[in-house]
Specification:
Structural class of chain B: mainly alpha
Number of strands of chain B: 2
Largest sheet of chain A: 6 strands, mixed
Low-confidence stretches of chain B: none
Number of domains of chain B: 2
Strand order of the largest sheet of chain A: 6-7-8-3-9-10
Distance between the termini of chain A: 26 Å
Number of helices of chain B: 5
Strand content of chain B: 5-15%
CATH topology of the largest domain in chain A: Rossmann fold
Number of helices of chain A: 10
CATH class of the largest domain in chain A: Alpha Beta
Oligomer: heterodimer
Low-confidence stretches of chain A: none
CATH superfamily of the largest domain in chain A: P-loop containing nucleotide triphosphate hydrolases
Helix content of chain A: 25-40%
CATH superfamily of the largest domain in chain B: Winged helix-like DNA-binding domain superfamily/Winged helix DNA-binding domain
Strand content of chain A: 25-35%
Structural class of chain A: alpha/beta
CATH topology of the largest domain in chain B: Arc Repressor Mutant, subunit A
Largest interface: A-B, 23 and 17 residues
Mean pLDDT of chain B: 89
Distance between the termini of chain B: 35 Å
CATH class of the largest domain in chain B: Mainly Alpha
CATH architecture of the largest domain in chain A: 3-Layer(aba) Sandwich
CATH architecture of the largest domain in chain B: Orthogonal Bundle
């Protein structure tokens, strides 16, 4: 078994306006997998499907080798989940919530929980309802990590938090992975944060998967090109054309292209069609993400 | 040693980390047998994937700069005489290439670059 999460041709519909269609995902065991997409793209729905909290119309879900939702009781014992919204009882104290959670998980790591209480500077006597947003997020992470799961599913774990808290949370996640080698599935729209830690990236929009690739491949395969004398129609290029537009000003023959699946040496393709590439410009993950979305929404080259 | 590691750069993070370590070895900041930070420690400090640090250390090992002793850590190897100097001159070449590429991009001519360099070095006064 090499995938911690495996989705195959998943189909789900909620009401008239939203559906997830033909969704395939492969989350390799041991990866830190970033799940990117704008708000409303279907990230949270996908997560709820993965955890067996929603039932798909059709398709297959396998988590840690077991089918979902059929085996959800067995699977969820090995999965740490941090939902987007804090869901804990506001009238319980931090200490009570930790003890309550511990009772459900046979692999509960008391030493880790104690260590994280100190590291996160949480006060065991404080009521959950009185905690700041950052403290709530830290407690949720603490609970998920102390279960000692093989898979962590985090839905926007650092959204809306200040940079200090975000650092503390990411640091704790990284320490956990280096010690235990777990798989982390993390949804976010904070692209720069994912760029640091993830080795796989998937991008969703409007209920569809736009791309799924190793981080390095995605980053290195997406380029902006300055193309001279480009023909209006191009046939079977070895790369994907995401967008093309005439270069601003000048009125000359130059065009700006954004391409995917690019590899060094592909400039020779342009020479074959009587054009030339004047410049190949690297894009960071955020630029690449925006260009992918733009091209997908134009109905262009999405899958 | 790892200040300014840039996740947004097109240069993969593991390459950037390995470069920093090579530079530290070349300049003597890391002497023979000096320990590198542990994978866990460096990953947490830079907030990056531990696998990235492991890859950087493996590359350094393959290049003969460090030795990974399992359970003990990663240590700088005894380098053949001249290797540090060679490594330093390679770093110098890399710096010059970066400068030239930047100059080309922003349309600074070679003559202008040379004049600026001489002024900065105090060879020539303006």
């Amino acid at each position: 078994m090499t995938d911690a999460i495996h989705l195959e041709r998943l189909h789900y519909r909620a009401g008239k306006n939203f559906e997830i269609k033909d969704l395939d995902l492969h989350v390799p065991t041991g990866s830190i997998y970033g799940f990117l997409g704008p708000n409303g793209s279907g990230k949270t729905t996908t997560i709820r499907l993965i955890l067996g909290l929603l039932r798909p119309l059709s398709g297959r879900i396998t988590v840690l080798g077991d089918p979902m939702p059929e085996q959800h009781a067995r699977v969820l014992g090995r999965v740490g989940y941090v939902p987007e919204q804090p869901h804990l009882d506001a009238t319980l104290t931090v200490r009570e919530l930790i003890d309550f959670q511990a009772a459900f998980y046979p692999r509960w790591d008391r030493a880790r929980a104690d260590e994280l209480v100190r590291r996160f500077e949480l006060d065991g006597e404080h009521l959950f309802g009185r905690l700041s947003k950052g403290q709530k997020a830290k407690l949720m992470i603490l609970l998920a990590l102390s279960q000692c799961g093989d898979l962590l599913v985090l839905d926007e774990p650092t959204d809306g938090l200040d940079p200090v808290v975000r650092r503390d949370i990411l640091g704790a996640l990284i320490t956990y992975v280096s010690e235990r080698g777990a798989t982390i599935f993390i949804s976010s729209h904070l692209v720069h944060e994912l760029e640091r830690v993830c080795d796989w990236i998937a991008v969703m929009d409007n209920g569809r998967l736009i791309t799924e690739a190793p981080m390095e491949k995605l980053k290195h395969g997406t380029k902006r090109l300055v193309v001279m004398n480009a023909p209006a129609e191009i046939v079977n290029p070895p790369f994907r054309v995401l967008t093309r537009a005439s270069a601003n000003g000048g009125g000359g023959a130059g065009e700006n292209w954004v391409v995917g699946d690019w590899e060094p040496g592909m400039t020779s393709y342009f020479e074959g069609v009587g054009a030339s590439v004047r410049e190949v410009i690297d894009l960071d993950l955020e630029d690449g993400f925006v260009e992918l979305l733009r091209s997908f929404r134009k109905g262009g080259t999405g899958r | 040693m790892f200040h300014g590691i840039d996740p947004r750069s097109p240069i993969p993070l593991y390459v950037q980390i390995a470069e920093r370590v090579r530079l530290a070895i070349a300049t003597g900041t890391l002497g023979s047998a000096a320990p590198l930070p542990s994978v866990r420690q460096l990953a947490a400090e830079l907030r990056i994937n531990p696998a990235t640090v492991i890859q950087a250390y493996r590359d350094l090992e393959a290049q003969g700069f460090v030795e990974i002793r399992h359970g003990a850590g990663t240590f700088v190897r005894e380098l053949a005489p001249g290797r540090r100097a060679r490594e330093r001159s390679q770093q110098a070449v890399a710096l010059v290439r970066k400068l030239l590429a930047e100059a080309r991009r922003s349309g600074v001519s070679l003559a202008e670059l040379q004049r600026a360099l001489e002024t900065e070095l105090g060879v020539k006064s303006t």
